[in-house]
Design a protein that fits this description.
Length: 119
C-alpha cells in the first residue's frame, strides 16, 4: 500500500475523502481524493491495492467511484503519477486519463476531463 495512504491521519479536511475496501478484516484497497483549494477540480492524491488483492479490478473500481462521485459537478479529475509506476499509468490510462505533459520531479500530471464539461 502506498506510503501516502499509510501516513494519512483522520479526520480528513471536509474537502477530502478516503475510500477503503476491507477484506477479511484487512485493508485490501484505498483511495484518497479531494478538491483543489479553489474547488475547480478533483485530485486523486493516492490509490493503492494490497499485493494480495492486485489484478482483481479493485483499483479500477476505486477510480470509477471517484469519477461517479464528482460526475454531476462537471469537474476535471487530476492525478499525479510517478513515471516509474507502470501499473498506475496503465490503470489511469484505462480510465480515460491522459498525460498532460506537466512534470514535477518524477511525477507527471494526468487528467480526465469531465464528460459534462464545466457546470
Amino acid at each position: 500500500m502506498q506510503s501516502h495512504l499509510r501516513s494519512l491521519r483522520l479526520p480528513l479536511p471536509a474537502s477530502e475523502a478516503l475510500i477503503v475496501g476491507i477484506d477479511d478484516g484487512a485493508v485490501a484497497a484505498a483511495c484518497h481524493f479531494g478538491y483543489d483549494s479553489d474547488g475547480e477540480y478533483v485530485i486523486v492524491f493516492a490509490i493503492g491495492v494490497a499485493p494480495t488483492h492486485q489484478r482483481r479490478g479493485l483499483g479500477t473500481r476505486l477510480i470509477e467511484y471517484v469519477l461517479r462521485s464528482v460526475e454531476s459537478e462537471g469537474l476535471d479529475v487530476l492525478a499525479r503519477i510517478d513515471e516509474r509506476n507502470a501499473p498506475s499509468i496503465r490503470l489511469f490510462s484505462a480510465a480515460g486519463f491522459v498525460d498532460t505533459g506537466i512534470r514535477t520531479s518524477t511525477l507527471s500530471v494526468w487528467e480526465r476531463p469531465s464528460a459534462a464539461g464545466p457546470g
